[in-house]
Amino acid sequence: MRLLVDGIRRGWRDSNGSMTKTTVEAKILLVLNKQLGCNKNYKHYMNRMKSLRKEYNSYSELFRCSSGFGWDPITKRFTAPDEAWKEYFKLSSILREKAGLQDTKFISVEEMFAIFMLTVGQNSRYCLVKDTFKRSKFAISTSFNPVLEALLVIAPSQMVKPNGFVPMKI
């Protein structure tokens, strides 16, 4: 990663913003292979770039909505206003107490709920969610259904009853 950043700072990119195969092989891979004692080629480089792009897009997608949640690249932690965290943990505790949702051996209720919210709230595919949370598709799948079932249990008590008022514009 440092070699790529250094190459960008040195102006090794072409007019469309990417590095040519010749530049990568001569300036990036040559140094990388020497430093690590390996034999990476351009195909390895392209696969790594594809993975990094997917990871970047996953985080971008996660924070695209106006939920108030963000990502601090320095501390590598999620950020949000206190009110957003308060509501998130309040609903997580309701899922625990009233619906009986429990931590599994490897995933907490809060993470299961976040997985569910990303999947439903952002219409994200399991692959994107899997990459975001660094979990297997199986773990993502088995986290989703218990949260859905728990939400169905608490839904009647959490929904506002209609008062018969219909706004002029929807």
Q: How would you explain this protein's 3D organization?
A:
- With 170 residues, this protein is mostly helical.
- It folds into two domains: 2-40, no CATH class; 70-158, no CATH class.
- 62% of the residues lie in helices and 4% in strands.
- A hairpin with a 4-residue loop joins β1 (70-72) and β2.
- The chain is elongated and about 70 Å long.
- The model has no long low-confidence stretch (mean pLDDT 79).
Short descriptors:
mainly alpha; elongated
Total domain units: 2
Tell me the β content.
under 5%
Low-confidence stretches: none
**Shape, principal axes of CA atoms:** elongated
Give the % helix.
55-70%
How far apart the termini lie comes to: 48 Å
* Main β sheet profile: 2 strands, antiparallel
Number of helical segments?
7
Radius of gyration in whole Å, from Cα? 22 Å
**How many E-type strands?**
2
* SSE string: HHHEEHHHH
Q: Structural class per helix/strand content?
A: mainly alpha
Largest sheet strand order: 1-2
Residue-averaged pLDDT: 79
Protein name: Myb/SANT-like domain-containing protein
Domain Myb/SANT-like: 2-88
InterPro entries: At2g29880-like, Myb/SANT-like_dom
